[in-house]
Amino acid sequence: MPQAAQRAIRRDAQEAILDAAEQVFADNGFHGATTRAIAELAGANAALIHYYFGSKEALFETVFARRSDAINAERRNRLAALQAAGQSAGQSAGAPTLEQVLDALLRPTVALGHDPARGGAHYARLLVHVAAGTDARSRRLTGASYDAIARLFIDAIAAAVPGLERASAVHCYLNTIAIGIALMAPTGRAQNLMPRQPAPRQDPRQDPGPDAAPDDLDRVLARTVRFIAAGIRAMAMAPTR
Amino acid sequence: MPQAAQRAIRRDAQEAILDAAEQVFADNGFHGATTRAIAELAGANAALIHYYFGSKEALFETVFARRSDAINAERRNRLAALQAAGQSAGQSAGAPTLEQVLDALLRPTVALGHDPARGGAHYARLLVHVAAGTDARSRRLTGASYDAIARLFIDAIAAAVPGLERASAVHCYLNTIAIGIALMAPTGRAQNLMPRQPAPRQDPRQDPGPDAAPDDLDRVLARTVRFIAAGIRAMAMAPTR
DNA sequence: GTCTATAGTTCGATAGAC
DNA sequence: GTCTATCGAACTATAGAC
């Protein structure tokens, strides 16, 4: 079946452009990136970008949607699994715990940022640009991709913390996302701020570096979830205003 | 003294360009902004930007430094005042509390974002762009303007929370900044995610809107400080790894 | 100091050969 | 499908009149 083989090759060419675009957009933002730089990094001809995607704008949206769809599908699946487990284990087991909800929310994004094998390390920084942007494109993309999942997890957070007002749950969700985005896009700032080499250290194995290596994912997540969960529970003990 | 009067007028022209540049850079990022758009918004001639500032690049750095210097000076003063008060009130009173430190850290930025009278609402979004950027300019600007103050407050956080490891204090600081930046640059996302008009509301005075009005500054700050302080204290109770 | 006019680049996009 | 060549637009920056 030669057609399938050829299709496979072509698919690789398109994905090479998508991967290159992801990196160049992440490094420079939409306006700072050029289609020529993307084509060069992809090892493709500059005209192919317009042949495949029609425009720089459409390429950007394709790059963005590719990862965000995967992230949100995984978030949805993890949350659904937690809720199903809670129901099957006797109805009094009830809703998943706050820590479980936060893990389901953060793990797909943080894993993407920390695991180079998944190829999405650059998307993390791309997402920061879009989240920061106030232009029409940025708001449209975040709204279209993340509003629905946001409402889902705001509900789950509210359900996991008795006494948490709905408005407070929204702020807690936004705080969570703020930390999560900063966490998934390591800018190297943590290293700069770390204490000056705790010099007289005897066991070098102890210090794999402040920013997590891929296998530190669980540890980074656990630490961050603990931080956020404590903050959210503190919000439930006091009125919003 | 005509020279002084003329100087005053000129100073206004330069500041008009700075204000316009702040807004246009905040809306579109460095590459998305054009000197023509800045000049038009400032009501000035496009060539004046180069006459006053030399280049688009230099203008950007001037805009950035103007506010960050003011923010960090205020942070430094507030922290010093807290520490001086702690010392004068008997040596056992000791270091300022965690809540006091967080307030000193966040108040100057959040106030800037929420008080239109201070004219810095746009800088908040500009800072988000720079904080998100991984290019050389962004890293140089954040490092030059914010690394020193970061170390100061990391020390203060560590001093306020017994048992908090130094490395944990760095992560706590970064979490604080992540929330603070998101907080000072309202993108309107909170409104979108708020519950669908709790419709049968009898008293309209109760809902001034989810994003704070200027006079809500203290309330927003108190809520955020409570969230973060609880998260930081939770970090002190468990090892980093 | 402030303006007009424009030089010199670089960009996104496309036409057309193969 | 893939390439070369190039168009037209928009940009930063500057030269020079006033």
- Report the oligomer: homodimer
Pattern of helices and strands of chain A: HHHHHHHHHH
Q: How big a fraction of the residues of chain A is strand?
A: under 5%
N- to C-terminal distance of chain A: 67 Å
Per the principal axes of the C-alpha atoms, what is the gross shape of chain A? elongated
- Low-confidence runs of chain A (pLDDT<50, min 5 residues)? 1-9, 204-210
> Fraction of residues of chain A in helices?
over 70%
Integer-rounded radius of gyration of chain A? 21 Å
> How much is the average pLDDT of chain A?
86
| Largest protein interface, residues of each chain | A-B, 64 and 64 residues
Given helix and strand content, the structural type of chain A is mainly alpha
Q: Say how many strands of chain A there are.
A: 0
Biggest pleated sheet of chain A: none
Describe this entry's structure for a reader.
- 2 copies of one chain form a homodimer.
- Chain A contains 10 helices and no strands.
- Chain A has helices at 2-32, 35-42, 46-53, 56-88, 98-114, 121-132, 136-160, 166-184, 189-193, 217-236.
- The longest helix of chain A has 33 residues, at 56-88.
- The first copy, chain A, binds a DNA duplex (18 and 18 nucleotides) through helix 3.
